[in-house]
Design goal:
Elements: H1 13-39, H2 41-48, H3 53-88, H4 95-106, E1 110-113, H5 122-125, E2 132-135, H6 137-185, H7 194-215, E3 221-223, E4 233-235, H8 238-295, E5 296-297, H9 309-323, H10 327-355, H11 357-378, H12 385-398, E6 403-404, H13 405-423
Parallel strand pairs: 5-6
Antiparallel strand pairs: 1-2, 3-4
Helix pairs in contact: 1-3, 1-4, 2-6, 3-4, 3-6, 6-7, 6-8, 7-8, 8-9, 8-10, 9-10, 11-12, 11-13, 12-13
């Protein structure tokens, strides 16, 4: 709805005709807007709904505004009709007619019942309630614009929430029903599994949410910042989104339980295999420890623990859950067992590595000694007495039991140093040359 031009001095005939033409167009636009508001789907829903909370309060105020709006429109239409009739008396109106027309079109010529008389509160009329009020047509249009905007804002906001949220809640409720049925089929029930309790809570929350959305839609309306247009904003869906996320988490949990049902036997078989490998590795570590203690002297060898009986007990419990189709209990137990079994296998391997470390050191020293012996032979020093003596000493230490690794390592180093001295190039004497043996 637009606003007429401000009042001015005495109008001439052409000004009157132009003003009447604008006012006719104004009247038609206002009437169209009011009829559209009257027929708005949101308004019909508000009139028929059992409202509560902020929506009940705001709709009661909006109904008063709409009633007052129609009263103002009737007064506006009556003033315009009187002006048209006065203008139609003469083709060339005289000064008195023009003065009367100017007063009708620009003066405070419209008298309407005040807010109290029309059932409106002072807040709707912009001041204290009055029995009657006088307006110019311009002021009346401005007042109608304000009432219309506030009324339309309530109607559009409520309609937007009703159009957005209930349908989404119904779709989520249908998904919830399917998830509940699936959960029941795999033994996920309230009081027996956390996901079953979550489904019950989501059901209660969605039911309460839908009831509140239907009875108090404006409680879910968030006005856009900086927007003054009617209906400027959106339905906020925080509670709906929270429940949708919760249902998605439950659905993933149920799918995990279904997956457990489908491949439980294979997973149990893999668990048995991992724990069996861990047990064999620990047994190997225990045997290796006895060998190390017999063959290596002056070496600290860590103790080797036995197989974890708790994991075997949990594995037996998991098998029992599978036989009794208690998938909701089997699912978290299998996940925990798989993690612990892998950790147990790693621990067993680390134990074997720690126990056999002295044997690995002895093997490395043996390999180093033989490598240097081969190198000495390639350079033609295999019959060197000092090297033979030091090699034999190191070999006796490394191939005897128990072997003192510290002493054996010193013997290997002495052999290496003796060999290195033979491989080193000789410094030529003054006035002569010396052979430089190729360093290997």
């Amino acid at each position: 709805m637009s606003v007429t031009e401000p009042p001015g001095p005495l109008m001439d005939r052409d000004e009157v005709d132009r003003a009447l033409a604008r006012l006719d167009a104004e009247h038609e636009a206002i009437e169209t807007s009011l009829l559209a508001l009257q027929d708005h789907a949101g308004r019909r829903l508000l009139e028929g709904a059992k409202l509560t909370g902020v929506t009940e309060e705001r709709w009661a105020a909006a109904e008063n505004r709409i009633t007052l709006l129609w009263a103002y429109f009737d007064a506006y239409a009556g003033a315009l009709r009187a002006a048209r009739e006065l203008r139609a008396r003469r083709r060339w109106p005289g000064r008195e007619d023009l003065a009367e027309l100017t007063e009708l079109l620009r003066g405070r010529s419209v008298t309407v019942a005040g807010g109290s008389a029309s059932g409106a509160s002072p807040s709707l009329t912009g001041g204290p309630a009055k029995l009657t009020e006088r307006f110019t047509l311009e002021e009346l249009v401005a007042r109608m614009n304000d009432l219309y905007a506030h009324s339309l804002d309530v109607v559009v906001a409520a309609d937007a929430v009703w159009s957005a949220l209930p349908a989404r809640i119904d779709l989520l409720a249908a998904e919830l029903a399917r998830t509940r049925q699936l959960a029941h089929s795999v033994g996920v029930r309230p009081g027996e599994h956390p996901s079953g309790d979550d489904l019950e809570r989501i059901t209660r929350s969605l039911t309460a949410l839908r009831e509140q959305v239907i009875s108090d839609p404006l409680a879910f309306w968030q006005r856009a910042e900086g927007s003054s247009a009617p209906g400027g904003g959106r339905a906020h869906t925080d509670r709906y989104d929270r429940e949708a996320r919760a249902l998605e988490e439950v659905r993933r949990e149920i799918e995990a339980v279904l997956t457990v049902r489908q491949d439980a036997e294979a997973r149990l078989g893999r668990l048995r295999d991992v724990l069996s490998r861990a047990d064999r590795t620990l047994a190997e570590a225990r045997n290796a420890r006895g060998e190390v203690l017999a063959k290596i002297a002056a070496s600290e060898v860590p103790a080797v623990s036995g197989p974890p009986t708790a994991l075997q007990e949990q594995l037996a419990l998991a098998s029992d859950y599978r036989r009794n189709a208690q998938w909701h209990r089997l699912s978290p137990l299998l996940e925990s067992l798989e993690e612990k079994a892998e950790e147990e296998l790693v621990r067993a391997r680390e134990s074997l590595t720690a126990v056999t470390a002295p044997l690995a050191v002895r093997a490395e020293l043996r390999g180093r000694l033989d490598a240097y012996k081969a190198k000495v032979a390639r350079h033609g020093h295999a019959e060197d007495p000092l090297l033979i003596e030091r090699y034999d000493a190191a070999r006796r230490m490394l191939w005897s039991a128990p072997c003192d690794l510290r002493v054996a390592e010193e013997a290997v180093l002495r052999y290496q140093r003796a060999a290195a001295e033979l491989f080193a190039p000789r410094v030529p004497q003054q006035g002569g040359t010396a052979d430089r043996r190729e360093e290997a």
